[in-house]
Amino acid sequence: MQINFAAVSAVKTGVWVVAAAEGVGLLPAAAKADRAAGGALSRAMPTSQFTGKSGQILEVLAPAGVAASRILVVGLGKSEDFRRCGAETAAATAVGKLKGTAETEVTFEIDTPRGGKAKGAQLAAHLAMGIALKSYLFNQYRTKDLAEHESKLAKATVLTQDVAAARKAWARLEPVAASVALARDLVNEPPNVLSPIEFARRVKGLTKLGLKVDVLGEAEMRKLGMGALLGVGQGSERESQLVVMRWDGARKKDAQPVAFVGKGVCFDSGGLSLKPAASMMGMKGDMGGAAAVVGTMRTLAARRAKVNAVGVIGLVENMPDGKAQRPDDVVTSMSGQTIEVLNTDAEGRLVLADALWYAQSKFKPRFVIDLATLTGAIMIALGQEHAGLFSNDDKLSERLTEAGKKVGEPVWRMPLGSAYDKLLRSKIADMKNIGNQYAGSITAAQFLQRFVQEKTPWVHLDIAGVAWQDNEQKPLIPSWSTGWGVRLLDELVAEHYEG
Ligand code: BES
Ligand code: ZN
Ligand code: ZN
Prior knowledge:
Elements: E1 2-6, E2 15-22, E3 25-26, H1 28-36, H2 40-48, E4 57-61, E5 70-78, H3 84-98, E6 105-108, H4 120-134, H5 146-149, E7 155-159, H6 163-188, H7 196-204, E8 212-216, H8 218-224, H9 227-233, E9 241-248, E10 258-268, H10 277-280, H11 288-302, E11 308-318, E12 329-332, E13 338-341, H12 348-363, E14 367-372, H13 377-382, E15 387-391, H14 394-407, E16 411-413, H15 418-421, E17 431-432, H16 440-449, E18 458-462, H17 486-496
Parallel strand pairs: 1-7, 2-5, 2-6, 6-7, 10-11, 10-14, 13-17, 14-18, 15-16
Antiparallel strand pairs: 2-3, 4-5, 8-9, 9-11, 12-13, 15-18
Ligand BES binds near residues 345, 346, 348 and 376.
């Protein structure tokens, strides 16, 4: 999709998108469109029960008196609630409506309602963001019925007063949209294609943006003592990989980096603790944490963020074969702590134990945030609306909570405590890798905390509920995978850690 900005003009080709707000009705551009179309919009509103609520859309086809092939009126919701998320949703709703039509061109003329927060160049840029996120497609494996799945829409123009300022604001956001698309691609990719080695190869491709990428294979990880991560991959025909990305953008070259760590289980069969068939479907997406880390690092590099950042992802395939790890095995992690593996399906924490330890020992980061599709239990607690946040640091938690609200990737803080930690006591080793039947997301987080070094501010995001969507489609997400986390971490860095 080609996205442009232009000054307000009367020339309209293709689709004309205007807006209404709840309790206000048609905004100025919409009122202008209504007049041009002989009052067709205002007549259609009551019969369509269109009131300008967020998510609502009114469509008038082939209106007489205007050049546009159709007019769409999008609802912005209540004026005072109108923020950048609302702008993104409104634009995405219009793009979604045009899917499956023959329209090739669309022009957005959206006013800020009185009291609304998103305005001017920022409004234009966030409309573009909504357009870009909603135009994402993943069709490489289709050979038939392409017309049904492709979009004819090729060009979107956002009308704005200050074109130069809008272009500048979009130059800051466009890399984020492209990186969300990369994260989505990685999660959508089938597991026969996306092995740990192929995943690592794709990350290496990002060096052209200025990222430094190192890949460690099994021999190097063995030397480092990463018995926890290697145990997970040992039942797979495919070699495990640890990918280390660095972006050195801080003004002070030796500034302490921020660190992101991702669970990259390219396929989670459960291992010998094999998952039942229905639960195994979708487990190609068990590398969603790693995808978010890659997307974030790509964003920081592409927008030349003034920060030093490292991304570490543990890439493995969890498979059952004659060499596979057994329930009852004891492994030694890079930290020196031993783990009794009682369930080989609780593998993400084993991968993260070594990836977290490596990131902290090697880079001494100012904080570490890990992302993982770690537990089914987090979906029982929070559904697909919030990611679970676990942390030893109130400030970092609050910053992430705020960032999440801003970008529309909300997180919800969950508790930690020694009573939960006790559930990890093992009969023969330093810990076991599962708790009891309760509080599964918390005991998983307690396990990870045992691999957080003293004084490192740490956040664990359990993204099992948000990395992909099962049924209902969220407004900005047209595919199974969501690309969750990229916008959140970009916002966190931009707001607090650059300079
Ligand atoms: N990858 C799964 C968690 C998961 C489940 C993600 C459903 C997305 C959707 C993880 O490796 C796992 O299997 N966790 C187990 C832990 C249990 C064995 C302690 C779980 O959640 O059941
Ligand atoms: Zn598992
Ligand atoms: Zn898993």
